[in-house]
Amino acid sequence: MVQIRKSLGLCPQQDLLFNYLTVSEHLYFYGVVKGIPRKMCFLEIDRMLSTFNLLEKQNAFSESLSGGMKRKLSIIIALIGGSKVVILDEPTSGMDPASRRAAWDVLLQYKQDRTILLTTHHMDEADVLGDRIAIMVNGSLRCCGSSLFLKKIYGVGYHIVMVKEPHCNVEEISKLIYYHIPSATLEKNSKNELSFILPREYTHSFQALFTDLENRQAELGIGSFGASVTTMEEVFFRVSNMEDLQTDIVAAQPQPSSLMNEVSIKNQNRSMSGNERPDSSTGNESPPVMFNTGRLLCQQQFLAMLAKRALFSWRNWTLVLLQTLALLGSFAFLTESVASPDGDHEARRMDLGQYGPTVVPFSVSGNSSLTPIFLRHLRGALGSDRHTLKEVQGNLLKYLMENEDCIRLCIVAFSIEVTRDEILFTGLFNNQAYHSPSLALAIVDNILFMTVSGPEASLTVSNKPQPHVIPNEHTEMFSNERQVAINIHFGMALFISGFCLLTVTERVSKAKHIQFLSGVYILAYWLSALLWDFIIFSASCCLLLGVFKYCQLDLFLAEYHFLDTMLIFMLYGWAAIPLMYLLSFLFTRGTSAYIKLVLFNYLSGIFSLLIDSIFEFENSHSMPNATRNFMLHLLLVFPNYNLAKCITYYTTFHQMKKWCSLKQDVAFLPCDKENTTKSIYSLEEKMIGKYLVIMSITGFTCLFLAFFWESILWKLRTFFNRYAYFGIYKTFKKKDLSKELSGDSEDEDVENERKRILEQPQVSLSSAVLVKELTKIYFKCPVILAVRNISIAIQRGDCFGLLGFNGAGKTTTFQMLTGEETATSGEVFLDGFCITKDLWKVKSRIGYCPQTDALLEYMTGREIMTMYARLWGISESQIQLYVNSWLNLLQLEPHADKIIRTYSGGCKRRLSTAIALMGKPTVILLDEPSTGMDPVARRLLWAAVTRARESGKAIVITSHRTEECDAFCTRLAIMVKGKFMCLGSPQHLKNKFGNIYTLKIKVKIDTPEHKLEDLKFFITTTFPGSVLKQENQGNLNYYIPSKDNSWAKVFGILEEAKDQFSLEDYSISQITLEQVFLTFANPENREMNV
To answer: Which residues form a coiled coil (predicted)?
Structure first.
C-alpha cells in the first residue's frame, strides 16, 4: 500500500489545504512526501506553477487564494511527483470558463503515461477529457464508452439551427428538410431561430440537404445556419431518465470492427428512438389562478408577513426563550443582589476545629515552674486529638518561615520565654487563614485564665458581625427608585435588541428585496413586523410583572398600579422596537448588530442618567440655562433614558404619597395637598407625562423614517448619483468620458441596437424591457466603471442571455434593473414604466432569482412558496394547488416539507427559480440560476424557464454556462468590462464569429498504421489549415477552418472518406458558443472590481 500511495495522486471535491502554508510550501511538502529529491523538487514546483499560471502566487498563503486558484493548487498536488494514477473529483468546480479551459489543456498535456479518473458535473468537460465516459445513476453503472459511442447509441443525431429573416418561410423550409430527411423532427421555432433534429443514420443525405439550403438561403429567408452533433449533456439526461427500464450492463468483447471495449445496455439501445428529445413545453399547465387586489391583497400580504414572523419565532424558540430569560433573569438577579440580607449572620466560635487537622508548633526557652502548667493548659485548649503539638528547638520564627508545610498546616504557634524578671508568653498566627489573629489571642487568654482560675475554667470566644443598619425612610425611598430603574433598563437593553436580528438577516440575504419585488407594501412589511414583535414584547412584560411580585416590588402592582406599569412598558416598546428597525440598516451581520445594539441601549441609558444626575445636583449658575435645557431635551431621544426616568419618578411619587399618608410632619417631604393630589401623568417636572408623550412621538418618528428609508431615499440616491457625483466626474473627464464609456470600437449589431432604440420611440411601447444607454460608475478610489453605456430592447416572449465572467458587470446590471442599485446615467423601462420615476410600479412586475439564494432558511419549501403566493395575491382557495404545481414542475415535492437550511445547493437554486417564476411578473431576471445543479436538475430548470417564456414573459438570464444560454435564449450578449461585445441569437453569433469546425473521427481498431497516416494526410491536404488537436487510441480530433468549406462540401468529403478509409464513425460540429465566448472575454484583461 505504501508503494501504491507513492504513485497515487488525489484531488478531492473539497480543497484540503493548510491555511498558513504558501503555494510553493504546499508543493514542496507533497513533493518530498512522494519521494522527489529535494534539489529536483524546486524545479518541479516552478514548472508546475508556470503551467497553471500560478507563479505570481507562489508565496501567497492558501487562505488568500480565490476558489478557482485553490482548485488549481489541488490539481497540482495530485499531479506532482509523477503520479501514475490520478483521481480528480470535480477538479474544475468554482472555475470560470477560461480557467476551466486552461485546466483542460494542462490535463490533456499531463495525461500521457498516466491513468486519470475524473468525476464531473460538466458534460463538456467529460467530452473533452474523457477517452471513456461512464454514467452512474443511483449508485449503479448505466453505460460506459467513448464519447462518439455514447452519442451514437443515446444521441438524437444532429441539430441544424437556422437564423430567421423577417420573411422566413418556415413551411417551405420544413418541406425541404422532410424531403431529404423523412425522419427529421422540428425541435424549436422561435422568433429568431428555427431548428430541426436530423437522425444520425441519414448523414449520407446531408450533402444534398445542405446544398439545397445554401442555394435557396435567400429565397427561404434564412440568414445563416449551422449544425452540431448531440452533446454529452443530452446523453446524460436521456440515460438518467431511463431508470424505469430493466438494464443489463454488458462488456462488449474486442471485435475487429471495435476500437476498444464498449460497455452498453442492450435494452436501452432499442428503447430510445433516434429523434427522442425532452420537450420543455410538456407537463401540465398551471391551473388558471385568480389574483386579489385592493383591500383583500393588503390583508393577505399583512397576514403572510405576520405568519413569517410567527414561524421565525416558532422555529427559533430557543432564541425567543433566551431573549425573555435575559430580561427576567437579569432584573431578578440584580434586584436580589442589592437587596438587604434577611436576618443576621450566626455567631462563629473561635477554635481550631473550623480548620481541620493542624499542627501547633511551640518553643520553650528558660526554666520556670509555670512552664509545665502553660503547656498542660495549651493541650487542653486545643480541645481535640486532630491537632498536634510539636516542640521546636531553637528559633521558632525561623522554623515557621523556612518550613513550607507550616503555611498549610500551622494556623497558630506559641513561644514561652523565661527571663530573670518575667515570663513572656507569645501567640503567633498564620495571616493566610481567616480569623487566625482572634483565634491566637483567644487561646492565649484561655491559658492565662485557666492558670489563674483553675483547669475547669474556660473562655468561649465567638465572632458575630454587627447587625446591618436599618435605613431611614428618606434613604430607602431615594435609593430604591434608581436601583429599580437601572435594573429594568439593563434587562430591557438585552431584550429589545433582539428584534433587529430578522430584519438584518432578511436585508443582507436579499430576501427582503425579493419580497418587495413580489409586490408587498411597505406598510404591510413593517407593521406586521411591529405587531408580532410587540406581541412578544407584551407577553414578556407580563412575565416581568410576575418577577416584580417575586422581588416584593408591590409598589408597581398594588391598587391597579400594574396598569400604569404596563402603560410605561408598552410605550417604551412602541418607541424602542421601531428604533431597532431603523438602526438595523447600519449593520450587515445579525450577531454583530445584536451585540452593538445591546451596548448602545445600555450605555445610552446609563450615560443619559449620569448626565441627568450631574445636572440635577450641579449648581445652576455653573452652566447657562439654555445649554442645560438643550442637553436635557437631547437626552429624550433615547427610549431607555425615558423608561428609566418614568420608573424613577413613578416610584418616588407613590413612595411620597405613602409616607405622607402615614405621618403628619415629615421634614424632607413636600406633603402639602397640591403635591399629593396631582396626577402622575402630569407634564410637570418630576412627573412621567412628558416622557410618555416623547416615547409616543419617538415610535411614530422611527416608523416614518423607516418608510422614508424604503421609498424616498431611492430618489435621493438617484439624484446624488446622477447629478452630483456624475456631474463632478464629467467636469473633470470632459474629453475621455465618451471613450471610457463606449471604447474605441463597437460591434455592428450592438451599434444597430442602440440606434434602433434611440431613433424609434415606439420600441419602448412594445418592449417588456428597454435599457437605454445604461451606465453605472462606482465613485470610489479608484473610480470603477461597472457598466458602460449598454442598450437593449427585449420583447415579451423573448429570453435574453447575458454572458460574462465574474466582474463583467452582469450582476450590477441586474441590480439596476431591480432597483437595488441606482444608475449613474441612462434609463431603464420595464413594462413601460421608468424605474427611476416609478420604482414601486416596476418592482411589482419583476420576478428575480439573485446570484446568492435569498431564502428564509427557517421555513420549509412549501411554506416559503405559500408566502410568496400570498404576496402576489393569489386567491386563498387556489394557493395549495398552485404551489403544488410548481413543486412538481421542478421536482421539489420530496423536499417540500423540509427546512430549507437542510437543502442541497441545487435544491436551493431550484426553489429560488420557482419563486422568481411564480406569480404574475412581466419580466423574470435569473442571475446564474443553475449554479450547483447536476445536468438533470438543469434540464428541469430549462423546461420551467422555457414554459415561462412561452407564456409571454420576458426573461433575462446571466450565466457562466454557454450551453444554458444556447438551450433557450432567443438572443444574447457577451459582456466584457461592463460593455456589450456582441449581440444576437446564439446561431447568429456562431456563424458570425465561428471560423472553425470541430471534426471527430474514430477509426477501426484493425486499421494499419500506414492507412492511419494516409487519413491524416488526406485531412490535412483536403482542408488546408486544419489542426490535429488530439490523437488517442484511434480517436482523431481536428479543427477545420470554415472559410471556403461549406457544410455540404464537408459532409460530402467525409462521406467519401468514410468508405475510402474504413472509418467507424465521425462527427462534425460548428464552433460552440463557449468558444465564441472565450474569443471575447480574455480573463487577463477583465476587471475584477465589479
So the answer is: none
Give the chain's largest Cα–Cα span.
Answer: 145
Q: What is the dihedral of CA 633, 635, 641, 643, to 10 degrees?
A: 30
For residues 40 and 43, what is the distance between their CA atoms, to the nearest angstrom?
5
- From CA 909, how far away is CA 932, in angstroms rounded? 8
Report the helix count and the strand count for the chain, using DSSP H and E: 44, 31
Q: Which residues pair with 928 in a beta bridge?
A: none
Taking residue 37's Cβ as centre, other Cβ atoms within 10 Å add up to 10
DSSP string, 37-75: -HHHHHHHHHHHHHHTT-GGGTTSBGGGS-HHHHHHHHH
- In this structure, the answer to whether residues 157 and 14 fall within a common structural domain is no
Q: Is the residue at 259 inside a domain?
A: no
Q: Which residues pair with 362 in a beta bridge?
A: 391, 414
Q: What is the pLDDT of residues 522-535, one digit of tens each?
A: 999 999 999 999 99
Determine the 3-state secondary structure of 433 from DSSP: coil
What amino acid is encoded at 122 in this protein?
Answer: H
User: Scanning the structure block, which residue is given the C-alpha cell 435567400?
Assistant: 218
Handedness of CA 136, 142, 144, 150 (dihedral sign): negative
| Domain containing residue 182: CATH number | 3.30.70.260
* CA–CA distance, 1048 with 811 (Å, rounded to integer): 42
| Buried/exposed code over 293-317 (b: 16+ C-beta within 10 A; e: otherwise) | eeeebbebbbebbbbbbebbbebee
β-strand pairing of 158-164 with 115-119: unpaired
Cα distance between residue 944 and residue 121, in whole Å: 20
Residue 69 in domain:
yes
Helix (H, G, I), strand (E, B) or coil at 239: helix
Q: What is the rounded CA–CA span in Å between residue 184 and residue 174?
A: 9
Kindly give, in sequence order, each residue whose CB lies less than 8 Å from that of residue 765, ignoring residues fewer than 6 positions away: 832
Block means of pLDDT (10 residues each) for the chain, 1090 residues, are 78 87 91 84 88 87 83 90 88 78 84 87 84 86 85 84 88 92 88 87 88 90 86 81 43 32 34 35 54 90 95 91 84 58 66 84 84 82 79 85 82 86 86 86 86 81 69 49 76 90 92 91 93 93 85 74 88 94 91 92 87 71 70 86 86 74 54 65 84 93 89 77 71 62 75 87 77 86 83 91 83 88 87 84 88 90 94 92 91 92 89 92 90 80 86 88 81 88 88 84 81 88 86 82 84 85 83 80 40
**600-649 pLDDT tens trace:** 998 988 888 888 877 776 655 566 677 777 888 888 889 988 988 888 88
CB 972 within 8 A of CB 802: yes
Q: Rounded CA gap, 610 and 602, in Å? A: 12
Output DSSP code: residue 166: T
Residue 335 phi/psi, 5-degree rounding, is -65, -45
Cell 454556462 belongs to: 961
Q: Provide the residue type at 277 as one letter.
A: R
Give me the number of domains the chain comprises.
6
Determine the Cα–Cα distance for residues 208 and 185; give it in Å rounded to an integer. 18
Print the domain residue range for 213.
Answer: 151-239
C-alpha 940/C-alpha 963 separation (Å) is: 14
Q: Are residues 442 and 481 in the same domain?
A: no
Residue 466 corresponds to which cell in the numbers above?
A: 454587627
Given the C-alpha cell 465618451, which residue does it identify?
738
Residue type, 872: W
1037 neighbors 1000 (Cβ within 8 angstroms): yes
Residues 6 or more apart whose CB falls under 8 angstroms from that of 398 comprise: none
**Are both 480 and 431 inside the same structural domain?**
no
Q: What is the pLDDT of residue 280?
A: 34
Position 681 in a domain:
yes
